[in-house]
C-alpha cells in the first residue's frame, strides 16, 4: 500500500503558481468584457433621493448606467452558510443589489458599465447623487440605546439577534464567602483580510443561463445566492471557481457575483467584469467583527472558579452577512475552555453604520480568546497565582464532553501543548527572570491558549461529495466541492486519495477548478473543515472505486476478489504478493473490451455528523520601551494539536500565516472611522498597518499529534486556530514586563502612552 499521508510532498499546484501559469479570474476574462464600476455612498446613513446620470452617459465608452432605482427590490442573504430548509435557520435577507437606503459609508448606490476601465471610472465620478442624510451610529453599545438611529426597521434597538447560555446558579454561587471578584472589559477591532487577490468576477449569459466566474470560496452557495437575488431557478445559474489568491473568509460571502450577473442580463447577456480595488475590499467587502466583551469571574483563594459571567457585543455593521454566528461561536468557547459549574453568558449582534462584518479566519475565536485569555492573566495578577499554574488547574480536562456538539477531549492535549511550548520558549526561567523589573526597557513573557472546533456540525449541514475517474493509463482524476483557496488542500487531498485508493501520488490528478455544472456538491472552504470533512467522502469513494477495480480484476485474472489487493497502482495477490497486472493494463482492457466495456468511476456523498476539538497555545516574548511606548516582539511560539498531520510542510506554512495575522491583530491592525462622517480613515495598504515580515520575529512552530478518532485520517482543524492566541499572548507578555494590563487591541504606541500615563510609568 502506498503511504503518502504524513509526508512533506511538493504542492500539486507549486509549478503552476511559481511560473505564473496558474489562471486566476482576471486571466480567464476575455478582453471584450464590459467593465463594471460601482458608485459607493459618501454618507454613513440615509436615503438616495436621486441620481443624475446625464454627465456620465455623455462620456465616450459608457454603455449603461444602472442605479438603485433600477434594481429589483428583492432582499437576499449573502452569508456563505449551507442552505437550510428550516426558515428559522436561514440567513437574514437584508441586502439588495443596489441600495436606496444606504447604511454605511461605501454602500452600493449605482453601477456604470463601460467599454474600458477609464471610461467606467470617469462615469462613476460624473454621477451626482442627492441624499437625505440620517443620523448614524458607529459604536455597538450606543446603537442599542433608546433613541439610537434605526438601521433596519424590523430590528428594534438595532439588535439582529441575542442568545444566552446558563448553567447552575450564578447569583447564588457568587455569594460564597471569601471569593475574589475580577472584572474586565475587552475590545477587539475591525480589521481586514488583506488577501493578495482582490475579489472579482465576470458574468455572461449562455444558452439561457447565467454563468459567473468568480474568486470565491463557496461556488455552490454562490449559485444559490445569485438565484435568490435575481429571482432565477438555481439550475439557471452556473458558477466557476478557478484558482483564487486567498480569501480568509472574505470570499465566504456572495460579494458582487449577484450584481455582476444582473448587470450582464441588463445588457443582453454580454460579458461583464466587476473587480474590486484594494480600497473597495477594505470597506465594501467584509471585515472582522469588532467585539466588546465583558467578563466577571469569582475565584476562590485556591484558584478554582466559583461563578462567571460573560457578555459580548458584536458590531455587525450595516448588513447581516454571517450575523450572529460569529459572536455566538465565541460565546460557546467561554464555558468550555475553563469549565465552571455556575455561569451566565449572553451575546448580542448589533447593526451599526460601519462596513458589514462577515467571516474571517478564526470566526469569532480570535476576539473571544483575546478577551478570555487576557482575563485569565488579570485573575492571576489579582490572586497572585502564576498564569501557568492557573491554567493547569482550570483548563478543560481530559474526558470533557460538550453537551451540545458532543465533542470530547480525548487526550491531555492542553498540557501536552503547553509542555512543548514551555520547553521551546524556556518560559519558566524567563518568567522568573523578568519579574519585578525596573528601568525604562523591560522584557516579559506571556502565555495564551486557544480553543477551536472543526467544521459546523451540529449548527449547520455538513456533507462532502467526491468523484473519482480511472483513466486508460491507470491514473485517476478526482473532484470535490471543497475548494482550494491557497491553503494547500488540493495537495493534502491528493495524498489522501493516493493512500485510500492504492495508487502512486504521481498518478493522482486533482481537478482544482470547481464548476457547479460538473463538480460534486460541496459547501466550500471555511470552518477549518477541508481535510476533516473531505476525508469522509474521499475514503468512502475510494472504497467504492476499489471495489469496482477489484471486481474487474477478478473478471480479468479469474482470482477471487477476496484474494486481491490494489497497491501502488498494481493488482496483487495477497497470499504471495505476486503482481498480476498493472492498473493501467486493467483499465485499458476494461475500457476497450469488445465483450465487457466498463468505465471505471465512483462518486459518493458523505454526511458528517461529528465535530472535533483542536487546541493549542501561543507563547510570546517582548521587549517594552516605556518612554518610547514601543513593543518589540522578540519571539512567538505556537504549539498546536491538529490531529494527524497530512503534510508537515503545508501544516507549518498554515501556522506561519495564522501567527502573522495574530501579530497584526495584537500590535498594529485596525480599520479606523471618522466619528463625524462615518468615513473609513485608513482603507488602503499605505495607511492600514498590516503586519509584514519586518514586524515578525522568527516564527517557531510545534505540533502535538493526537489522531482524532472521529476522522478517517485522524485530522482536525489546522488553518484557523494559529490566528487565535497570538494577540493575547503578546498582551500578557506586556503585562508581565510592565505590570500594566492593556484591555484592547491593537496595542499601539498611542494605547501604551495612555495606559503608561494612567499607571504612573510616564510622567508629564
Task: Give a nutshell description of this structure.
The chain is built from 20 helices and 27 strands. The chain is an alpha+beta fold.
Q: Strand order of the main beta sheet, please?
A: 3-5-1-12-9-10-11-20
- In terms of quaternary structure, the protein is single chain
Low-confidence stretches: none
Tell me, rounded to a whole number, the average pLDDT.
96
Helix-and-strand structural type? alpha+beta
Quickly count the helices.
20
**Shape label:** globular
What share of the residues lie within helices?
25-40%
Spatial extent as radius of gyration: 27 Å
Provide an overview of this structure.
The chain is of the alpha+beta class and 764 residues long. The protein has 3 domains: 152 residues, Aldehyde Oxidoreductase, domain 4 (2-Layer Sandwich), CATH 3.30.365.10; 180 residues, Aldehyde oxidase/xanthine dehydrogenase, a/b hammerhead (Aldehyde Oxidoreductase, domain 3, Alpha-Beta Complex), CATH 3.90.1170; 317 residues, Aldehyde Oxidoreductase, domain 4, CATH 3.30.365.10. 28% of the residues lie in helices and 24% in strands. The chain has 20 helices and 27 strands. An 8-stranded mixed β-sheet has the order 3-5-1-12-9-10-11-20, sandwiched between helices. It has a 5-stranded mixed β-sheet with strand order 7-15-14-13-8. The protein has a 4-stranded mixed β-sheet with strand order 16-25-26-27, with helices on both faces. A hairpin with a 5-residue loop joins β22 and β23. α10 runs parallel beside α11. The termini are far apart. 54% of the residues are buried. The mean pLDDT is 96.
